Amino acid sequence: MSLNPRLQHWPGQRVWLVGAGHGIGAALAETLQQQGARVALSGRTEAALQAVAQQRPDMPVHVMDATQPDDWARVRDALLAEWGGIDLVIVMAGDYTPLRAWELTPETARRMVDINLLAPMYAAAACVPQLMAQQGGGLVLVASVAGWSGMSNGLVYGATKAAVNHFAQTLYLDLHRHGIGVYLVNPGFVATRLTAQNGFAMPALLRPEQAADAILHGLARGRFDIHFPRRFTLALKLAAHLPYRLYFWLAHKVTGL
């Protein structure tokens, strides 16, 4: 039995995709539009969003800063005026800077907390009342397998993604009984401009298009925790339950850090 509504039929579905200018977000926008969804693109960089929307006049672009609550309210209201409702909000916006303990600065910590953790909270604050008024719809939050257990280079990033996992679980407990879906996406390594900063070989590396397909597969099955590629993520789930002595040894062995 699925934990969420199964999202299998996209024609006419009104999808607001935040963080759509690059990587997985851009690939997901294209795939959803090809399957008939009405997709609105949001992000900080208008040029990147326009490149995704190129030759798709029915894909509106709304530039916004996901770290600003007022921007969430402004774009939400614009889409409600245009569409009359929103069926699915996908929060892809995020940031990653590889950090070791001796490289941490308050500025870097604040930047990643703002975009990786506070932005999903602002999304929920802006959109959950509308979804409840509609008595349906869904919210997709993107975390990471880096939030499952400590990883070198993920000093702040992993902590923010662990918090997103917790936040999504609690949202689910509150919203499931109201018929609102909460979908948590925990990708493994995906080849994007962010992961290109890693200085180690990334196991089971996926292309953004493969990640987008995996997300849609999880939504179609109504999963709460959509993690991929499963040959890699299932091993990580198991590793997270190892005794610390074994886990710390394994983490060093895999990353070489």
Describe this structure as you would to a colleague.
With 257 residues, this protein is α/β, with parallel strands linked by helices. It has one domain (14-255): Rossmann fold. Helix content is 46%, strand content 14%. It has helices at 23-34, 46-53, 69-83, 106-134, 157-175, 208-220, 230-239, 244-255, and strands at 14-18, 38-43, 61-63, 88-91, 137-142, 180-187, 225-228. The chain has a seven-stranded parallel sheet, with helices on both faces. Helix 2 (46-53) links the parallel strand 2 and strand 3 (61-63). Helix 1 packs across helix 6, helix 3 packs parallel to helix 4 and helix 4 (106-134) packs parallel to helix 5. The longest helix is centred in the middle third of the chain and has 29 residues, at 106-134. The chain is globular and about 55 Å long. The model has no long low-confidence stretch (mean pLDDT 94).
- Tally of separate helices: 8
Helix content: 40-55%
Q: Termini, distance in Å?
A: 41 Å
Shape: globular
CATH class: Alpha Beta
**Rg on CA atoms, Å:** 18 Å
> What integer is the average pLDDT?
94
Quickly give the structural class: alpha/beta
Which second-level CATH architecture applies?
Answer: 3-Layer(aba) Sandwich
H/E element order: EHEHEHEHEHEHEHH
Strand order of the largest sheet: 3-2-1-4-5-6-7
